[in-house]
Design a protein that fits this description.
heterodimer; A: 255 residues; mainly alpha; Four Helix Bundle (Hemerythrin (Met), subunit A); 2 domains; 7 helices; globular; B: mainly alpha; Cytochrome C Oxidase, Chain A; two-stranded antiparallel ribbon
């Protein structure tokens, strides 16, 4: 029978532990359910601010510990995250599919589309956004190429370009939203506004998450520490967010 | 804050850190077990309040119908989302799946810890519904328009679903990668434990279907708090859209619970009968994966009376009846595994054997509900309530309890069997029948489910008895179960520390978690030698 006597092999001979998962979950918990509840259900701005702030701090602390551990510890089997991420993306695809099917259920059930109360929505902004997001995927790919060739400063440069492009994309999205809201087109206006804000907002939340991941890669990379699996996962996720945008934009704006 | 991964140079860590902050799959499994059992206890208390309220005509225990609704919400949501799913795919999968495939841990240990913490915070959120003045009162289904128009806090329901859903999706990613990449060298797909197969099938379902539920409840959240119109027919929305999205997940969720429960039973039955799995390949590829394949196209049987077109109802009647085929194959395989076996009757096997009865009853009472013509009569009655309790609450929970007794020596190095275990098994088994048989009978006569009272039926007699009499019997049954659950809880805690010591493989199983690890397994599971298997190895090779 086996024992767990310590030897010089690489196998774990002590109980592994980490602060990161608990902190990240606590952060998410305060930032989303609790803050949301205080804001929308109980109209308590002070508590919303307190818990959102607390949640953000915990989340950032957890993520930074997690990234640090990920870069310094040896995993059980290196590189499997490259398989895990696509499996996770499959799940994401189903979220978008159900949002799109809800959208088409409403749209096909209406007599005219877009319904009454919808202002003219410019096609220019989504076109520019598409170009920007595709470029950011290209720059992310360039960064990966540089890393492949061991050029870390080149990687950092192209990675920063991607972050800038992604931020511009998000900025444009917010600009468009604020314009529309000023025109009185809010989520509650009609069926189209419901779908419009839900789907573009859900996509934007993915862009935001992607940008967070980009920054989590960038900060250690600036001081010379990075990991190819980590970079390629973030990059694959970003390409996914990019591809989903084609479906979002084509159905929401152009179709 | 970093922990070294090699043996050299790591500092001694306080025990609480090694438990609370653990990333080890076995300890995470125990955390899941503790959380799931706590959730089970509290949601069980809610069930007792429901039974007490129903025992007599009129309002005795709850203060209002709204409070009763809140109790129903908590009971349903917590039992399904925080006890059954985390108990089976959280606890059992975490602790035993890596051991069964010869892995030293899961592929992503920190994500595993992340999942368990999402689960705990979701329980906290569910418990907060007792603290706030406006806890959710929308059952576990949260149907609009009521969930949108109610003054209660629907957001708590939505975020509980989000947290648990995210936890399950990450668990699914983790375990699928683990099974694909971390199997011991030499372990082929036809050499996996049935529990491993059923668990990955459940995770495939979680991966694909949870996102749909997540988006349904998100749209609900937006409808309630942002004023969107997804489920509002006056503005082009559709209330049936919610029901479709909801059941598109929540029917497969039944199999998320059912399949791992079946997997546990297979492992108990094969070990305790010292026999091979009868028709292994048919059970795996037709039974398990057939169930998975059909499970996504049967959900409309929950909407037979909601106003679906006839052709859809007929189509889903056919698929719903069809799913009895793979389920039947699994059941036959369990019986066949007993055939000519040398059966040992211990507590685990008693639970497993009783499951063979529970699945028969729960399964067969479902067939009328697959037929739209019968459902017009039976829908929303306590017949439905008794049916799904037999298959979900009783079958799955008994399988889980059987699993706990079966693996208790592995987890603690001690037996949990004994007179208390036997007595509590019989209390539970008798209790569930006494509770749910009367509900079948009055359900068939029209007793509505989810009502706190049944004033309109007070003069109706069945076989000379009033509805109230049946409810009294059911309540007695519920308290029998309560006693039957309280005793083993005490027994588990006692046995974990003071029970009779058990050897590493007390049941003489051939499965890896028994043959290759100590009880309980230490860090890294398998000591210094990696598990390597030859092509003839099987976890069920008892003939050799």
């Amino acid at each position: 029978m086996t024992t767990d006597a310590e030897t010089a092999t690489v196998h774990e001979h002590h109980w592994e532990w980490s602060w990161a998962p608990l902190l990240v979950v606590a952060g998410i918990f305060f930032l989303l359910p609790i803050s949301f509840g205080f804001y929308f259900a109980y109209d308590d701005l002070l508590m919303t601010a307190i818990f959102a702030g607390l949640g953000t701090v915990l989340l950032l602390a957890g993520v930074s510990i997690w990234v640090h551990e990920g870069l310094t510890q040896t995993p059980l089997l290196a590189g499997v995250a490259n398989v895990g991420l696509p499996i996770f993306i499959l799940s994401e695809i189903f979220i978008f599919l159900s949002l799109f099917s809800s959208y088409w259920m409403m749209r096909l059930g209406m007599e005219s589309w877009p319904p009454e109360g919808t202002p003219h929505i410019s096609n220019t902004i989504p076109l520019v956004m598409t170009v920007i997001l595709v470029s950011s995927s290209v720059t992310a790919h360039m960064a990966e190429e540089k890393l492949e060739h061991g050029d870390l400063s080149g990687f950092n440069k192209w990675w920063i370009y991607s972050i800038i492009l992604g931020s511009v994309f998000l900025g444009l999205s917010l600009y468009e939203w604020s314009n529309l809201i000023n025109e009185g087109f809010i989520p509650a206006t009609n069926a189209y506004s419901s779908a419009f804000y839900t789907i573009t907002g859900f996509h934007a939340s993915h862009v935001l998450l992607g940008l967070g991941a980009f920054i989590a890669v960038l900060i250690p990379a600036l001081s010379g520490r990075t990991n190819k699996t980590f970079v390629s996962c973030v990059s694959v996720y970003w390409h996914f967010v990019d591809i989903v945008w084609f479906f979002v934009a084509s159905q929401i704006y152009f179709w | 804050m970093s922990t070294p991964t090699t043996t050299t140079g790591h500092a001694a860590v306080p025990a609480w850190k090694e438990w609370i902050l653990t990333t080890d799959h076995k300890r995470i499994g125990i955390l899941y077990l503790v959380g799931a059992m706590a959730a089970f206890g509290i949601a069980g208390l809610m069930a007792l309040i429901i039974r007490l309220e129903q025992m007599e005509l009129g309002m005795q225990f709850v203060e209002s119908g709204t409070q009763y609704n809140g109790i129903l919400y908590f009971h349903g949501a917590v039992m399904i989302l925080a006890f059954l799913i985390p108990g089976l795919t959280g606890f059992a999968a975490n602790y035993f799946l890596p051991l069964m495939i010869g892995a030293r841990d899961v592929a992503f240990p920190r994500i595993n810890a992340f999942s368990v913490w999402l689960f705990y915070f979701a329980i906290v959120l569910a418990l907060l519904s007792f603290v706030v003045p406006d806890g959710p009162d929308i059952m576990w289904t949260g149907y609009p328009p009521y969930s949108v128009t109610t003054s209660a806090n629907t957001s708590m329901y939505v975020f509980t679903v989000h947290l648990l859903g995210f936890s399950s999706i990450l668990g699914a990613v983790n375990f699928l990668v683990t099974v694909i990449y971390l199997r011991a060298p030499g372990m082929g797909w036809n050499q996996l434990n049935m529990f491993v197969w059923t668990t990955i099938a459940a995770f495939v379902l979680q991966l694909i279907f949870i996102p749909v539920l997540a988006s349904a409840v998100t749209l609900l959240l937006f409808d309630k708090y942002l004023g969107t119109h997804f489920f509002d027919p006056t503005e082009g929305g559709d209330v049936l859209l919610y029901q479709n999205l909801f059941w598109f997940y929540s029917h497969p969720a039944v199999y998320v619970i059912f399949l791992p429960a079946v997997g546990i039973l297979f492992d108990i039955i094969a070990t305790m009968s010292k026999n091979r799995i009868f028709n292994y390949k048919a059970a795996v590829y037709v039974g398990i994966w057939g169930t998975v394949g059909i499970s996504g196209i049967v959900w409309v049987h929950h909407l037979y009376v909601s106003g679906m077109p006839d052709w859809i109802r007929l189509g889903h009647m056919v698929t719903t009846l069809l799913i009895s085929v793979p389920v039947g194959i699994l059941t036959l395989s369990m019986w066949g595994t007993l055939y000519k076996g040398a059966i040992t009757y211990n507590t685990a096997m008693m639970y497993a054997a009783s499951c063979l009865y529970l699945i028969l009853l729960g399964g067969l009472t479902g067939i009328p509900l697959a037929l739209p013509s019968m459902t017009l009569h039976l829908s929303e009655t306590s017949y439905v309530h008794a049916h799904f309790h037999f298959i979900m609450a009783l079958f799955a929970a008994f399988a889980l309890f059987g699993g706990i007794y079966y693996w208790f020596p592995k987890m603690t190095g001690r037996y949990a069997d004994g007179p208390i275990a036997t007595v509590s098994f019989w209390l539970n088994f008798v209790g569930v029948n006494v509770t749910f048989w009367p509900l079948f009978i009055i359900g068939k006569e029209g007793m509505p489910r989810r009502y706190w009272d049944y004033e309109m039926f007070k003069d109706v007699q069945i076989m000379g008895f009033y509805f109230e009499d049946f409810h009294k019997v059911a309540t007695i049954g519920a308290f029998t179960i309560a006693l039957g659950m309280l005793l083993p809880t005490i027994n588990f805690i006692y046995a974990a520390f003071k029970g009779k010591p058990a050897p590493d493989n007390p049941w003489n199983s051939k499965s890896l978690e028994w043959t290759h690890t100590a009880s309980p397994p230490g860090p890294g599971n398998f000591g210094d030698t990696d598990v390597v298997l030859d092509e003839n190895w099987s976890p069920y090779e008892y003939q050799k």
